[in-house]
Amino acid sequence: MTTVSSPLAGRAIGLAAVPDPVFSGAMVGPGTAIDPVRGPGEAVSPVNGIVVSLHPHAFVVVDDEGRGVLTHLGIDTVQLNGQGFELLVDKGDAVTRGQAVVRWDPAAVEAAGKSAICPVIALEASAEALAEVAESGNVVVGDTLFTWK
């Protein structure tokens, strides 16, 4: 079982509330989403593992069980071409749960006309594989977002 921790502080809102049909329809995979606290901060790794995909707006960490967790910083933020995002690790790096991966500012994302909502997705998983999915309430970095059976 993998415990997926919150990479950000904010409010859990669930995937259905994400303003993007790819995420709200769980087409990428099941999970939840966070409406992050506004202001500069860091997105951290939700699991121990290896960074297998790294972009300014999104990253995937694969744990030792081969499970990939996508953290997507905002919606349509790929269109910002990395502006306002600072990578703190490299693709291929081993990271620990809670280690900073990207520095960003959700308020700046909104000022650029994008949503700051952050989906956290269990890649290649079924909805039935997840338990204890946080879909409401305040979360701090490190709180459990869901468990992956």
Automatic annotation (TrEMBL):
Residues 20-124 form the PTS EIIA type-1 domain. Pfam families: PTS_EIIA_1 (PF00358). The keyword Transmembrane helix does not apply. Keywords: Kinase, Phosphotransferase system, Sugar transport, Transferase, Transport. InterPro entries: Dup_hybrid_motif, PTS_EIIA_1_perm, PTS_EIIA_component. It is found in: Cytoplasm. PROSITE patterns: PTS_EIIA_TYPE_1 (PS51093). The keyword Kinase applies. It comes from the Bacteria. This is PTS glucose transporter subunit IIA.
